[in-house]
């Protein structure tokens, strides 16, 4: 292809991209690529496309390169955009293809921005969902099993013992020396229940409390004597003044 054909395409491109195109040489141009439609609040992502035309253009693909102008684009995304641009160029071999390549790249930038936005929204929703699940689990509590109850009971008893010990120490500190001695003596005295548990025969030991020499009373003898006294009273003669 003669340089006249390339110059003719340059003139067409300059009329379309008056503010975006820079002519670097007789065979090389640079065009700033901006997405077609970007909604308010979406990130800005602009690229610079360099096109180098070979002597066999348009029967041969031009050499293409992309560089970021604004926004972040990783190497994998750049490679994907270039592969798509070259595929479009291959479909238009034999024809002026620069405008078609630029239009394709603008569409792909818009798609890339929307994909990123949806991914960020999905990640935000996922974080919110996890936060809600954690909050529900925290407020709902943990299901009680035999093992978890026994573990809780062990901790509870230990904490209760430590708390009682601290209270006991504080109470002793507030006492005088005499009060502490008396308190300790009372503390070691066994209760009635403790005594009973230590000596199972305590209930039967009351008989041993009788003092030596105590006289036992036969209730049946007392009843017999009382009956005889009553019989004697009946045998007595009664006199009245009328006799």
The helicity comes to 55-70%
CATH class of one domain: Alpha Beta
CATH topology of one domain: Ubiquitin Conjugating Enzyme
What Rg do the Cα atoms give? 55 Å
Question: How many β-strand stretches?
Answer: 4
Low-confidence stretches: 202-219, 239-243
Structural class: alpha+beta
Strand arrangement in the largest pleated sheet: 1-2-3-4
CATH superfamily of one domain: Ubiquitin Conjugating Enzyme
CATH architecture of one domain: Roll
Distance between the termini: 182 Å
Major pleated sheet: 4 strands, antiparallel
Strand content bin: 5-15%
N-to-C SSE string, H for helix and E for strand:
HEEEEHHHHHH
User: Helical segment tally?
Assistant: 7
Average of per-residue pLDDT values: 78
- Assign an overall shape: rod-shaped
SSE order and pairing:
Layout: H1 3-16, E1 21-23, E2 28-33, E3 46-52, E4 63-70, H2 75-91, H3 98-140, H4 146-173, H5 177-188, H6 192-198, H7 219-235
Antiparallel strand pairs: 1-2, 2-3, 3-4
Helix pairs in contact: 2-3
Give a structural overview.
There is one protein chain. Helices cover 57% and strands 10% of the residues. It has 243 residues and is an alpha+beta fold. The protein has a domain at 3-119: Ubiquitin Conjugating Enzyme (Roll). Strands 1-2-3-4 form a four-stranded antiparallel sheet, covered by helices on one side. A hairpin with a 4-residue loop joins strand 1 and strand 2. The longest helix is centred in the middle third of the chain and has 43 residues, at 98-140. The radius of gyration is 55 Å and the shape is rod-shaped. The N and C termini lie far apart (182 Å). InterPro entries: GIR2-like (IPR040213), RWD_dom (IPR006575), UBQ-conjugating_enzyme/RWD (IPR016135), ZC3H15/TMA46_C (IPR032378). Residues 8-112 form the RWD domain. It comes from Russula ochroleuca.
